[in-house]
Amino acid sequence: MQVQMLGDDFAAMITAKPGQALGDVAGPQALASVQQHGALLLRGFAGDLATFERFTQTVAARFIHNGNDSRESLGDEGKTRSVTPGSNFVGPHSEFSYMPFRPDVLFFYCTRPASDGGASLLWDGIRLWDQMPESSKALFMNRSIRYQYRQVELPFFAQFFGTNDADTILAALQSVPGAVCTRHGEHIDFEYNVPAQVYRSIDGAQAFSNSIAVFPQTGFDDASLLDPAIRADLLDIALRNTVSIDLQAGDVLIVDNWRAMHGRGAFDDPQRQICIRMGYFANDVVQPFSAALEEIEY
């Protein structure tokens, strides 16, 4: 299969030959391309939602849901869901980068694209870090980002620890580096401090990969806030390096959730439908508290 690049050394596309089905794409080959290029678009391969789910299982070993009830459950006990509701622009972010359960890989499947607008947007975190002013790099190297949540339902965390026992979940959360949590009955107040950039051990690259743009209230672990001027500069760098993809029906987009950030363009079409699955590579119970959270593990 021939690979075509969609950006500068980032995001590849493989187009099907006549008669090829999504099941003809080897999972290990797709994974290797994602790890090399940061994202992979598969276009023109015959399939449906069930075929898509089966294909994702050849690339990733374990899947989760994001617990957001505003996203429609479309399959696999809620692990296949619609994307963020609404039709507004969504800025650059990495799924669950604001919690210690960041998935390794994201899978998007386009059932019906918007009639106008609604492009899928990608940003290469390595490129963004390279283009960032040295003063901003120093700021993020010396401080962690703080994300805060209130009244998170305890059952949400069960999928990460393989148990519904509240005491076990609380103990596990309290073992996560950078996490502070307080239980209030069946809810938890959760605070998570984590670097805004991640380090890729396979090549030494730094990737600016986080959710700062979609969490404007987020500050630093020393309780200081990010200067709005710096935030604006970061968004400007991102927008100047956007890879925009107008998904077609049947397209599958696979994204390295450690290297890349994603978002979408605004649109006006209530019939647009794109679903997402979030997966991990290791076929075991996720134990984020035992992982080196600064590193991308392949």
UniProtKB/TrEMBL annotation:
Pfam families: TauD
InterPro entries with a match to the protein in the record: AlphaKG_dependent_hydroxylases, TauD-like_sf, TauD/TfdA-like
Biological processes annotated in GO: antibiotic biosynthetic process
Keyword Ubl conjugation attributed: no
Cofactors required: Fe(2+)
Gene Ontology MF terms: 2-oxoglutarate-dependent dioxygenase activity
Coiled coil regions in record: none
Domain TauD/TfdA-like: 27-273
UniProt keyword list: Antibiotic biosynthesis, Dioxygenase, Oxidoreductase
Organism domain of life: Bacteria
Protein name: Taurine dioxygenase, alpha-ketoglutarate-dependent
Source organism of the structure: Andreprevotia lacus DSM 23236
